[in-house]
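--- STAGE predict ---
source: upstream dedup step, 1 unique chain passed
mode: sequence only
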Amino acid sequence: MNKKQVIVFTGGTWDMLHIGHLNVLQKAKQMGTVLIVGVSTDQLVKKYKGSRPVVPYAQRFKLVSALKYVDKVVKQKKLFDLKQFKKVKANIFVVGDDWRGQEYKVPNLKWLKDNNYLRYVRYTKGMSTSLLKERIIKDSYNIIRSQCASCNKDKGKNA
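--- STAGE serialize ---
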């Protein structure tokens, strides 16, 4: 007996890949039989976040493609791209629950909700790319100091 194919679509930046990203993809995959993931271009990320991602688009695309939950990866040039959603014939559009309440501020998100395509997955508490960046900035002095210390040890060995 053939199980009806349910295509799930989600998109994101997927910068500095972490457990929160993996949780979203795992939960999205559980909602259907095929998971298609949009990876935002560097230009799109800069436009809506105000800064470029740390990891360049081509590398983020390759990283997401390698994950076991992901069946196909596509380039995402637009947030909540309905044209792309319809093109891949998706049945469900997954976003993190941090978008809840934004549906009527974002036109395409509103359409997805009004037409019953939108599903939410729980945001992973205590983990985000922004938090990782903040931690790196906060700890940067210690990171640099420890790297310089190991560089100096390596120099001494070569002398």
